[in-house]
Prior knowledge:
The structure is a homodimer.
Chain A: H1 11-18, H2 25-33, H3 45-57, E1 61-67, E2 75-80, H4 82-97, H5 105-111, H6 118-149, H7 156-180
Helix pairs in contact in A: 1-4, 2-3, 6-7
Chain A binds a DNA duplex through helix 2 and helix 3.
Amino acid sequence: MSGRALDNPLVVPILGLLLEGPKHPYEVWRELAGPGRDPTVAVNRASVYDLVKALAAENWIAVHGTARAGNRPTRTVYALTPAGHDELVRRLDEQLRTPRREFPQFLTAVGYVGALGPEAAVAALTERAAALRARIAEDEARLAAARRRVPELFVIEADYALHMVRSELVWVDDLIRRIRTGGLAWPESGDRP
Amino acid sequence: MSGRALDNPLVVPILGLLLEGPKHPYEVWRELAGPGRDPTVAVNRASVYDLVKALAAENWIAVHGTARAGNRPTRTVYALTPAGHDELVRRLDEQLRTPRREFPQFLTAVGYVGALGPEAAVAALTERAAALRARIAEDEARLAAARRRVPELFVIEADYALHMVRSELVWVDDLIRRIRTGGLAWPESGDRP
DNA sequence: CTGTTGATAGTCGAATTCGACTAGTAGAGT
DNA sequence: ACTCTACTAGTCGAATTCGACTATCAACAG
Lengths: 193, 193
């Protein structure tokens, strides 16, 4: 494996989609990030084309054929190779096995909550809590609907996401409470030592 | 605000560090990612220099002076400007207020756990659970020690991180149990529909 | 006193990423 | 019949990111 492009976090999702069957890059992009998907993701289309090229160079995927509909640009369809399947399994195993410390926006921002002052902090956190409650309600509904259509294994990702959002809400609510009751002292200026 | 470089997630941490006082880029890098820090982060040093240049062009930070020790390269020290302070507060407020859907490695990998088969999945998840327990013990000790030295507000980030890791462990343990007891059916091939 | 390791400080150029562009098709609206 | 919008499919070049390099200084071993 050479080339830092293959460290891209999109590698697993792309190989994963090709597990379902051969696809052309535009189709891969559409399923990952196209219209209808959550707009907060917004995977760049050109990035998908770039990565597909890199995956083909590595022989993890290979040209499966070309299809042309009418006079539109020729679509190049790619399929997972056995080497690509192995690589996907290797990465999945590694990523499930090993926890990595990651830095979501909120974690970083929480570290500097002192800079806002207690009132502004409570205001922002209260709005977050409301947004989290709304998302939980929405996701619960979507998940319940999905469970009626497919086996539990295929909604496991949504189940995990929901569990973590619920847990975040518990913490946020408690932080608001701690600030409000003065249980969380607010040193001068809020600067970190 | 122009230039996509300013969307970089490092912007808040860098402005945040300059809140403590003027610093030169190497010092910023050292506090973010240098030796002694968690090696899983590994912020690239050149990226810090690039971003500092972009932040200065935007007038969010400004040259505060240059210091020279012996015959070594001159260090250019930067300080936060009032505009930079405003921008930091604006971003913190926005990031605390608005939950974003993010995609940690584990979330993506969980979605394709079916591709591993139940035995391999249990093996990988069991190792993850053990690693999570070890991390929790370590972080609890570190946090308890930190609490003896600084006010609670300054360890709030670690408190949040610990809460979320504990919550992940609960879910992982339960997933292992569900697979083991057969409560989670494993459709042929594990491919997603 | 010479060599080795490691921290400090910064720069350079090649690889990567992404906003914006081209261009054809389908359907809705007037 | 004709415009307007939206979707399909892919490419191009400029901005961004990062691995690898230079060079100085301090500490220590042999």
